[in-house]
Amino acid sequence: MDTGKYTTKYNMNHSRIILVGGAASGKDHMRKLWEDRGFKYAISYTTRPPREGEVYGEDYFFLTKEDFLKKAKENFWYEYIDFNGWYYGTSNDQFYKDDIFIMTVSGVSKIKSEDRESSFIIFINTPESVRRSRLEERNMPGDSTERRLVADNKDLEGFKDYDITITNKF
């Protein structure tokens, strides 16, 4: 009898989906598609300044650097990173309760091996020219397109710890 359940070594018992890609690769768009299907998004914490239109508690939880580091001392974070001069993190509570995540390569590298087995990582591979065009349309206080692209290229170099890659050419 066919139960309709598709099983491979890559998707058995996954409890979370993690999206990885450079800035403006389409991670937020894909995350919203998953949310529309009932998945719960783990809203990241960050110390970077909000962009125009971003809402606390919907896009990010914006913290001061001091508050972020205080939470680190309290073992609040499952994973956190210093990316391009700003901290980003996922709480322990989120990591074990939520379904869909956006992480950097550095964040993925901090996933415990037993938790990696229950995570499905999707790498969104978007050409730099497309990402550059999208970034140039954004209002990014305290940041620049070049700075983001350089940081992403460094972070993504040699990244192979994913289960599937999606090429987004548009």
Structural topology:
Layout: E1 16-20, H1 27-36, E2 45-46, E3 61-62, H2 65-73, E4 77-83, E5 86-91, H3 92-97, E6 100-102, H4 105-108, H5 113-116, E7 119-125, H6 128-136, H7 145-156, E8 164-167
Parallel strand pairs: 1-6, 1-7, 2-3, 7-8
Antiparallel strand pairs: 2-5, 4-5
CATH architecture: 2-Layer Sandwich
Silhouette: globular
- What is the count of distinct domains? 1
Largest sheet: 4 strands, parallel
Percent in helix: 25-40%
Question: What radius of gyration results from the CA coordinates?
Answer: 16 Å
- Quote the CATH topology: Guanylate Kinase phosphate binding domain
Instruction: Order the strands across the largest sheet as they lie in space.
Output: 6-1-7-8
Whole-number mean pLDDT? 89
CATH class wording: Alpha Beta
Tally of DSSP helical segments: 7
Provide the low-confidence segments as ranges: 1-12
What is the total tally of β strands? Answer: 8
The N- and C-terminal alpha carbons lie at a distance of 41 Å
* Proportion of strand residues: 15-25%
Order of helices and strands: EHEEHEEHEHHEHHE
CATH superfamily: Guanylate Kinase phosphate binding domain
Helix/strand/pairing category: alpha/beta
In short:
By secondary structure, this protein is an alpha/beta fold. It has seven helices and eight strands; from the N terminus they run E-H-E-E-H-E-E-H-E-H-H-E-H-H-E.
Model description:
This protein is α/β, with parallel strands linked by helices and 170 residues long. It has one domain (16-167): Guanylate Kinase phosphate binding domain (2-Layer Sandwich). It has helices at 27-36, 65-73, 92-97, 105-108, 113-116, 128-136, 145-156; strands at 16-20, 45-46, 61-62, 77-83, 86-91, 100-102, 119-125, 164-167. The strands form 2 sheets. Strands 6-1-7-8 form a 4-stranded parallel β-sheet, with helices on one face. It has a 4-stranded mixed β-sheet with strand order 3-2-5-4. Strand 4 and strand 5 form a beta hairpin. It is globular. The N and C termini lie far apart (41 Å). Mean pLDDT is 89; it is low at 1-12.
